[in-house]
Write a structure and sequence with these properties.
By secondary structure, the protein is an alpha+beta fold. The chain has a domain of about 140 residues: Immunoglobulins (Immunoglobulin-like, Sandwich), CATH 2.60.40. It is about 20% helix and about 40% strand. The chain contains five helices and ten strands; from the N terminus they run H-H-E-E-E-E-E-E-E-E-H-H-E-H-E. Strands 2, 3, 5, 6, 8, 9 and 10 form a seven-stranded mixed sheet that branches. The chain has a three-stranded antiparallel sheet with strand order 1-4-7, with no helix packed on it. InterPro entries: TAT_signal. Keywords: Signal.
Length: about 210
């Protein structure tokens, strides 16, 4: 049984973007009574300096290129009691994909799994608070409100930012089940989740 809980993501979506960008999510997934996981956490550590480019034509911005970008994150999972972490995964929230996955195989498992990881993802592989194209559209609205024409806005490349989400899942089970590779129980198949908001550079290209 795989239980997905996006409470923290939904709570973050209600916040102004400036608050979300100012700091990584502070709270981590809480341990529930009887849980086999003590803590799960993911934080953004940076991003490559190459921006996501959004193309345009005379009518406006058309969409972002689908080139993969590098995202650097720090993940942490600690099992509770005598349990051990047997699998970790980084994924695009709501995308049913896996950007990184590792399991212990037939061994007792990890008491703690903590690593800095680098994942590569295309824009379409992630969920966004503000997509790159929407960020460019918003920038155009701001410039037009300041008195520029659409043609003037589209005459030059312009810079802005967008906000993506990256999810982290960790699974724990007993040492015995881990050694046998048997995770059919409700506890062993339960995904303990956390997510991080990630600010991405965007270049809104001039219309050719």
């Amino acid at each position: 049984m795989n239980v997905t809980r996006l409470t923290r993501r939904l709570a973050l979506l209600s916040l102004p973007i400036a608050i979300a960008v100012a700091a990584p999510l502070a709270a981590t997934t809480p341990a529930h009574a009887g849980s086999n996981m003590a803590k799960v956490d993911i934080v953004a550590e940076g991003i490559d300096m190459e921006p996501i480019y959004v193309d345009s034509r005379a009518s406006g911005y058309t969409g972002s290129e689908q080139k993969a970008h590098k995202y650097m994150v720090r993940v942490f999972a600690k099992a509770a009691g005598q349990n051990r972490v047997w699998k970790v995964q980084i994924y695009g929230i709501g995308k049913n994909n896996s950007l990184f996955e590792k399991n212990v195989g037939r061994s007792e498992g990890w008491d703690v799994y903590g690593k800095s990881l680098e994942v590569h993802a295309k824009p379409g592989s992630l969920s966004w608070m503000t997509t790159p194209k929407t960020a460019c559209d918003n920038l155009m609205k701001e410039k037009i409100a300041e008195g520029m024409t659409k043609a003037q806005v589209l005459s030059n490349d312009r810079k802005t930012t967008a906000l993506a989400f990256i999810g982290f899942a960790a699974y724990a089970d007993t040492k015995r089940n881990n050694k046998q590779g048997d995770h059919d129980s409700a506890q062993g198949g339960y995904s303990h989740l956390d997510n991080s908001a990630y600010q991405v550079r965007v270049v809104c290209r001039a219309a050719l």
